[in-house]
Design brief:
The chain is mainly alpha-helical. The chain is built from 4 helices and 2 strands; from the N terminus they run αααββα. It has a two-stranded antiparallel sheet with strand order 1-2. α1 packs across α2 and α2 crosses α3. The longest helix is centred in the middle third of the chain and has 15 residues.
């Protein structure tokens, strides 16, 4: 089960294409957004976001597309 705040967090990342921008949109810290994402991934046992090294941001996996 995903809470409404976790869903909003994942949706913000998917829409913005960036954890930094997603956190800014939600008005929370990047650390908190990363924590929420990691907790959901651990709970579901699937990867929702591929972290791209450098300034590439993140890439949303098919699992997150299906979830949203």
């Amino acid at each position: 089960m995903i809470t409404s705040s976790e869903y909003a967090s994942l949706k913000a990342i998917a829409e913005e294409g960036s954890i930094n921008q997603g956190a800014r949109t939600l008005g929370i810290s990047v650390y908190k957004l990363r924590q929420r994402t990691a907790l959901v991934e651990a709970r579901l046992g699937i990867a929702l976001i591929d972290h791209v090294r450098g300034r590439g941001g993140v890439r949303v996996t098919d699992n997150l597309d299906d979830l949203l």
